[in-house]
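Blackboard transcription, Thursday session:
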Amino acid sequence: MTRILWINPMGTAEFDEPISRELRSESAAFIDVASFERGPKHLDYNAFEMLVAPTLLSTIRWAEQEGYDAAVVGCFYDPALRAAREIVDDLVITAPAEASLHLAATLGEKISILVGTEKNIPEMHENVVKYGFLNRLASFRPVGIAVNDYQRDPSYTEGRLMEEAQRAIEEDGADVIVLGCTAQFGFYRRAQERLGIPVIDSAVAALLYAEYLTSLRNGQGWRTTKRVGYKGPDLSEMNATIPVTAPVVLLDPRKNAKTNACS
Amino acid sequence: MTRILWINPMGTAEFDEPISRELRSESAAFIDVASFERGPKHLDYNAFEMLVAPTLLSTIRWAEQEGYDAAVVGCFYDPALRAAREIVDDLVITAPAEASLHLAATLGEKISILVGTEKNIPEMHENVVKYGFLNRLASFRPVGIAVNDYQRDPSYTEGRLMEEAQRAIEEDGADVIVLGCTAQFGFYRRAQERLGIPVIDSAVAALLYAEYLTSLRNGQGWRTTKRVGYKGPDLSEMNATIPVTAPVVLLDPRKNAKTNACS
Amino acid sequence: MTRILWINPMGTAEFDEPISRELRSESAAFIDVASFERGPKHLDYNAFEMLVAPTLLSTIRWAEQEGYDAAVVGCFYDPALRAAREIVDDLVITAPAEASLHLAATLGEKISILVGTEKNIPEMHENVVKYGFLNRLASFRPVGIAVNDYQRDPSYTEGRLMEEAQRAIEEDGADVIVLGCTAQFGFYRRAQERLGIPVIDSAVAALLYAEYLTSLRNGQGWRTTKRVGYKGPDLSEMNATIPVTAPVVLLDPRKNAKTNACS
Amino acid sequence: MTRILWINPMGTAEFDEPISRELRSESAAFIDVASFERGPKHLDYNAFEMLVAPTLLSTIRWAEQEGYDAAVVGCFYDPALRAAREIVDDLVITAPAEASLHLAATLGEKISILVGTEKNIPEMHENVVKYGFLNRLASFRPVGIAVNDYQRDPSYTEGRLMEEAQRAIEEDGADVIVLGCTAQFGFYRRAQERLGIPVIDSAVAALLYAEYLTSLRNGQGWRTTKRVGYKGPDLSEMNATIPVTAPVVLLDPRKNAKTNACS
Amino acid sequence: MTRILWINPMGTAEFDEPISRELRSESAAFIDVASFERGPKHLDYNAFEMLVAPTLLSTIRWAEQEGYDAAVVGCFYDPALRAAREIVDDLVITAPAEASLHLAATLGEKISILVGTEKNIPEMHENVVKYGFLNRLASFRPVGIAVNDYQRDPSYTEGRLMEEAQRAIEEDGADVIVLGCTAQFGFYRRAQERLGIPVIDSAVAALLYAEYLTSLRNGQGWRTTKRVGYKGPDLSEMNATIPVTAPVVLLDPRKNAKTNACS
Amino acid sequence: MTRILWINPMGTAEFDEPISRELRSESAAFIDVASFERGPKHLDYNAFEMLVAPTLLSTIRWAEQEGYDAAVVGCFYDPALRAAREIVDDLVITAPAEASLHLAATLGEKISILVGTEKNIPEMHENVVKYGFLNRLASFRPVGIAVNDYQRDPSYTEGRLMEEAQRAIEEDGADVIVLGCTAQFGFYRRAQERLGIPVIDSAVAALLYAEYLTSLRNGQGWRTTKRVGYKGPDLSEMNATIPVTAPVVLLDPRKNAKTNACS
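(Written on the board underneath:)
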C-alpha cells in the first residue's frame, strides 16, 4: 500500500486534522499529514514560502528515510519543488499547481483558477507559464477570502467560489475550474455537480498525482531524473547542510486495519 | 478492475499480440487490444490518420457501449483525440504523446523525443506546442527506422535508440527521453537502466495515464468536460453519423482468472 | 483558365448551389462545387471533420486526376489540410482559415473572428496559434447562430454579424474582421461598406488564395514542398488505401462559354 | 492591366535594369522600376533604411497620384512598411519579407532564409517574430556575400546559395528556402530544380503578392485598413510634410504593346 | 559631469523649453535640448518617425562629435533606435519605451501604459513584444488626448491620466503605470503620490537611463556592441551618406555655474 | 553617499574580502559585504538557495533597519528576489541575473551566458524566460568549473571563459557575453578588451543597478511597488516570523575617509 506524506508547510497543525479527513476520504493510500512546529501560519507571501523552505527540506529527507513513497508539498504556489526534487533519491515529490494544471489541461481546454486575492496572481501566473499552460489559461479569479478563512464560514466560501466559477464559465469561456488554494478543500464535489464541468480540488489532485507517480516509479522505474536541473548535492554535502528532522505528524489510523486486508 | 481498450488504429492485427503482451506485463488492468479490419497498416502519414478516423470513432463508441473504462488511441500523433473526446459521455480517452509529455515534463527538465524519420517531426512539433511543452523540448532525433521495422531486428533498433539517446543527453542536454512511436515497444527498461535517466515508452505511459484518469473519474468525478471545445453532437445526430461497430479485438485472457481474485 | 474545385466537405448538396453563385460572382475562374453523397450535414464538431476526411481525401485525389488546378476545403476549421497536401503531387490545396488569416494579417493589425458559437473557439484558437497569428488576434466573437442557420434569416444574420463586428472594433480594438465560417457568405460587402474596415469572407478569401497559389505554381514552380511534413505515401501505397472517387459535383456553366473567349 | 511600381529604395539606378528584366519575365503586369537620385547605394544598415525613408514616402505618394495599383518596397528588411501604409489611400503596398514568409509558411513547414551576412540576422529575426513565423523558422544562413556583390560573379553566388541551402535541408530540416535579399535575383529557378523544394525569390514573391492584393482590392474591396495602426495623417498634414516627388523611373516598354491586346 | 543631448525629434522648438525645465529639475547632468528646423510637429504617425529619421541621425552624429556622453531620442515609439546605435562609436543612445519598460519590469509585475489614442497601440505593442515584456503587460489605455494637447489644459490631462490609471489598477491588475508619451511630462509625481504605486514618466526614465548607461560606459567599458545587429557603416561610407549637422539647441544654463563646483 | 549591502548568501566569509575589493574598485558607493555564519558554502543547488533563504530575509530586514539604501543578493540564480521585495518598505533590492540581463538586452542583440556546469542551465533558463529575454538568448555555455574553483587557478578560469566566449561569438552569433556566476569576478575587463564586445560581470552589474535604482528612488520616488505581487506581510506578522538579525559584515574602510570629502 502506498504511503504518502502530505505536508502542510506551515507552523500550525490547525489544518492537519481537517485536511487529513478530506484526503483520506479521497484515497485508500496511507496518508500521514505533517506540519511544522514553528513558522508562519500560512504561505500567502513568497517570503513565507522561503521561511519554511529549510524545514520543508528536512521533512522531505525525513520522509525518504522513513520509507514514504511520496511527499506532497501542500500549497498551490508549489514551494521549493525543484529543491525537493534535488535532494531525494527515490521519493516521489509533487505539488498542487503542477498536479492540477496537468490534469486540467487534459480534461478541458480553458482553465480558470480561483484564487484568494489579487496578490496571489503574479507568482501563480509565473508558474502557469513555467509549466507550459499559458495558452490554456482562461483567467485567474480572486474570491476575496484570506487563506485561513476558507473554512471559517463554509457556506460563504462556497457561495463566493460558485459566483466566480460561474463568471469564469460565462465571461471567460472556462470549461474546467481549478481551486487554486489547498485551503479551499471540501467544496469541489458540490460545485462540480452544480456547474456541470470539472472542478479540481488542487489538494486532492496533488495527492492522487503522487499515487500515480509512485505507481510509475514502482512499476516502470520512471522517477525524477537526477541529471541536469534536478541533480542534487552528494550525500556528505547534504548531511552537512540539511538535517533530517521529523515534522509534527498526524498518522493515518487506517494503517493497522488495512495491513491485514487482502491487497 | 479497470477495463481498457487499447486501439492499434490500423488495418492490421499484426501488432495486437506483441503489444498486448507488452502492455499486460506493465499493468494489472484488463487490456483488450483492438485493430481494424481494413485500412492502412501504419499511420506514418497524416493522411492515414484521417483514413482510419471514422473507424476509430466507431470503435470509441463501441468501447463506451461495451462498458470499457478507457480507450487509448495507440499512435504518437495522438490521432483524432479531440474528436474522440467529443463523442463520449464518460469513457476516458488518452493517447501516447499527451500522456508521455505530461509525464516527462514532471520527471525532467529537457525532453528529447526519438522519432522514426524527419517526416514525423513537424506534426509532432505542432503537438508539443499545442500541449504546452515547447520550452521543455531539448530535441527531436530521428532514428531512421520505418514504423513497421522496429520489431524486425530488435538489436539494431535498440542500438539506434541508444545512440540517439546518448547524443540527446550529450549534445542537447536532455534529461528525459521519450520514445516517440508506440512501435518502439520493448526497449525502454534496458535503455533507462543503461542511460541512467527516465526513458518513457509512450505506449506504456498512455496505458497507465488511462488508468489514472479512470481512477479520477470514478473516485472524484473528474472527467472530460463536455462544454466548449469538447462539446459533441447529441445522441440522435451521433447515431445518424457514427455507427457503433466492433473492431477486431484480442481479449485479455487474464480476465476470467482475475475476477475470482480478491480486488 | 484556372479550374478550381470548391469542396463543401459535407453529406449534403444543399449549399452547393448558393455558394457556387456566391463564389462565381467573385471570380472568373471555372469553379465546380463538390459535396458528398453521405456524411454529416455540417462540420461543427471535430468528430464530423474526421468522419468526412476519407471521402475528402478521395475527392482530392479525384480532383488531381481530373486536372483541376486547385481544391479548396470549404470549412473554417481547415479540416485535413496537412493530409490533403501529403497526397497530392501538383494540385494546389488551401482552406479558409489559412487564406483569410494570412490576408487579414497583411491588411490590418488586430483581427477579430466572428464564429457561430463558443464551441468553435478552441479548435480555431489552436489554428490561429499554429498559423502564427496569435499576436494579431483581437478576439473571437460568437454570434450565436448554428452553422446551417446563417442563410435561413439573412437579415437576422446580418444584424448579429454587424453587432459583434461593431463590438470587436470598439471593445477589442479590431481593425479587420474575419467571417469565421464559410456559411456566413453573402454578407461581407455590405458589412465592410458600413463598418469602414475590411470584412473578409473566408470562403471568398480561400477561393482567391487558391487562384493565387495556382498562378505561382504555374509561373514560378512554387508548389507545396514534398519533403518533411508534407511528404506523402508513394503511389502504390496511396492506391491501396485512398480510392479515387468522384464527389457530387455542380459544374460551372460558364466553362463552355468561356473556352471560346480570348484568354 | 495592373500597374506596379517596384521601388529599389536606393540612390543608384544600377539595379533597375537587371531587376526590371527579371521581374518582367515573371509577370504580365506593367512594372515600372524606380530608384532615387540620392542616398545610399544599398540598405545593409538600418541607418540606411532610415536615410531613404523620406524619399521612399514621397515616392509612395507619387505612385498613388500617378495611378499605380501597387508599390513594392524592394528590400528584404521591408523598410518603412507601416509608414507607407499609413500615408496611402488605396495604393497596395507590400515588401519582400512579408510576401515571401506568408508564402513559405503556406508551402512548407520549416523555412530557412539565406542572408548576406550575420549582420542582417537580428533585424530580420525581429521581422520573423513580428510577422508570426518564428515557429516555422528552421534557420538563417549567411552566404558571406555583400549585397552589391551578388551579381558580380553569378556562378560563385549560385555556388554559395546552393551550399547553404543544402545545409539548411540536411542540418536544419528546412523544406522551403527563402532568398533573403532582393539582390539574390536570377537564381531561384535553377536552385529549386536542383534542390527539389521551393526556393522563393523574395523579389518575385513580393511582386506577385502585390498583384494578388491588387486583385483583391479591385474585386473584393479588401484593402489596408485605415483604422488603428495604419491610420495616417489627414491630407493637409500630409501635404505639409511629405512632398509628392517623382523618383528615377524605368518605364515598362511593354505597356504600349499590351494595351492593344485582348485582356 | 555627464553631458546629455535630449532630442525632441520634431520640427518645432515649442516643447524644448518646458521639457528642458522638467528634465533639469530631475537631474544634475548638463542637459541640452535639441529639436529640428524642419519636419512634422509631432510623431503620432510612423510616417512622421520616418520623415525625421535622417535629421535625427545627423543630429546623433553631431552629438558624438560635440562630445556629448549620451543622446536620448525623445519619443515613446523609440524611433530609429537601432539606426542610431549603428552609427555611433561611443555615444550612449537610449529612448523612452526601452528605458521605462526595463524599469517598470524591475519595480512591478504588471505594467499599464497610458497612451494618447488607440492609434498608438499597435506599434507600441510591437515594441513591448520586441523588448520582451509581453508577459508583464497589464494593458494599454488610451486617454484620448492628442500628443500636442497634453500641456494645453494640464488639469484636464491630469484628470484623464488619473482616471485611466485607476482603471488600470482596478480592472487590469496593474501595479506600475508608464506614461506612454514623452509629452505627458509634469504629471508623474502627483499621480504616484495619489495612486500609491510607481508612475513612470518615460521622458525622465530615459534621461536617467542615459546617465546610468554613460556611467557604465565610462567606468566599466560597457557600451553598445558594434558587432552583429549594431554593426554600422565604416566612416567613409557614413560621411558620404549622413552629414553631421547641428540641430536647434537649447543649452543648459547650469553648465558654466557648475563647472567651477567641486565634482 | 549611497550605502549598499552586498550579500554573499552563503555560510562562508571566504569570498567577502576578494569580492569587496573587486566591487569597491568599480564604485564609489560605500559597499559593505555580508555573509552568513552558517549554511552551505555555495548555492549551486536550488536546495541550497532554499536553505539560506530565511537568513537572507533576516539580513534584508537588518539592512533596511541599518539604513542601507540597497541590498544585492549576490548569486546569479537571483535567489528569493520576490520574497525580499515583499518584506521591505523602501530598501532597493536587486540581483545579478536581473541586472545583467536587462543591461545586456540594451547593449546587444544576442546574449550568451557563461555558466559553471550544465546543472545550472534549467533554473537560469527559467529566469531568462521570466525576465522576458528568451528571444535575445544566443546560448548558455558551461565552462566546466565548480563555483568555488573559479578563483583557484585564475589563468585556467580565464582561458576557459575566453574559449567559450569565442565559441559563443562564432557559433551562436552572440554579441554580448554575460558571466553567469558572481564567482567569475576579476575577468571581465581583459576579456572584453580582447573580445571586442561587452562582457558583463554580473556582480558588478548588480551593484551598479542597485545604485541606479537607489538614485531613482531618492530622486523620483520610483520604488518597488507594494501592491499585487510584491505586497508583503504587515509589520506585526513580519516581526513574528522574520527576526532582524545581523549577518557577518565586512565594512567598507572608505566610509570614514569619504565622509569628509566634498560630495
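Lecturer's comment: Chain C touches chain B at residues 39-40, 44-51, 53-54, 56-57, 80, 82-84, 86-87, 118-119, 121-123, 126, 129-130, 228-229, 231-233, 237, 241-242 (CB under 8 Å).
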